[in-house]
Amino acid sequence: MQKQKVIIIGSGIAGLYAALSIEKFDVLIVSNESGGKSGSSYYAQGGIAAAIAEDDDFETHVQDTIKAGAGLVDYEVAKQIILAGTERVHHLAELGVNFKRDEKGNFNFGREAAHSKNRILHINGDASGKEIMNVLNARVSEKKNIQTRYTCEALEISVYGSNVNGIWIKNEKGETEFISASNIILATGGVSALYSKTTNPLSIYGKGLGLAARAGAVIADAEFVQFHPTALDLGVDPVPLATEALRGEGAIIINEKGERFLDNYHPAAELAPRDIVSRAVFSEISKGNKIFLDATNLKSGKVKDKFPNVYNLCKQNNIDADLQPIPIAPAAHYHVGGIATNINGRSSINGLWACGEVACTGFHGANRLASNSLLESIVLAYNSAKDVEQNFIEPASKSITSQFSHKNTNAISELEDLRNVMMENVGIERSEASLKKALHFISELMKRTSDNISFLNVLTTASMITKMALEREESRGCHYRSDYPETKEVFKRRCFEPKQKI
To answer: What pLDDT, in 10s, does the model give residues 421-450?
Structure first.
């Protein structure tokens, strides 16, 4: 059994940045990744939204966020995150992140859907996540107070009395191990691999949210799962992503006849909020149409030069994106909900913080504004780290080890069945009938696999998403109920489970 001062679960951008922001204590990063290419962060093509251009201001960014969030954005949270973003972006640059700049050395800003200003900072075209991760990993390797343990899966958070006292993991040898800790930061990412069409790596099943929920943490807004409208429909799993920045540069969405159709759904057409574009594309595909992203006439250059990642992915599948439209379909991309936290990352459990996609502050409301995710990740990671430092919980004088009875951590063959059920019944369009069908399946699966602690975390997350989607009898943001297609004033509120606010 090991003792560490602060444990961070997860090694994506949020986890690494939180670790780098802790200076007073030793840090142990535990991750189920192999290091360097952790979770969704490494594959993030979009950039960081930051209101720091001369013609921009924080209030305009806040209002864009509120508009996209469909009435559920917490204004004060949005204001604080966006204001803090300027300093965090400059700090990333100091760490070595090479943001795109103009000939004078000033930041160069791009535009993405639902932003009223050019405020998106990119790195190396469409490889922002990869470049940020490379820099953060390099800086972590230089810090003497940070240790890392990779290929380790978090299984269960141990709570003694009212405080976290450690975590059970499946270690590098495949054995269960208890690590004592009174201060834990969860940065485990999202849930999108719960769906059979996803842009996320297949390790992103929402286990972090599940283990927090099983420990008693309050979960917020879990029903809001955002689908990206322009995933490359190439028959692979996970589905490669065609970044939203392509549409910001003038790419259009067409059907097999070459016709644009999005202006029938929203005045902003291709630059409408992500949920609207996703449902429009889904609707056209449901009618039997094949849908494409046409990037053959971008405003400022070729796909090959400006978006090399997308171009190469297409080229590997015999598509020249500079000459041919790209087949697309919506895919699960980002979880708007998560562990309920305040602006400092504090959860409802003493000693447990959360940051990044696994957390839910109310910043995104019912629908995330493009490129606000990395902004929230770095701000909340920094805030969580500093809050841990200022409110550090001393370990109990006597080491307390949780009773851990769930020994089975093997892979479950039913996982693919679960992914198909979630996609079909809890996907872009939901209904009471489909959601109840999914809940019944999840419940039966829980009974059959009750001894498997790893899979129980996954099923808990799937259950939380589905139950909260069933409770919200309206359509709002990225939650669409075909049996309740209208937005209702009575549901203009965030949803918490258990039904209490932190």
So the answer is: 999 999 999 999 999 999 999 999 999 988
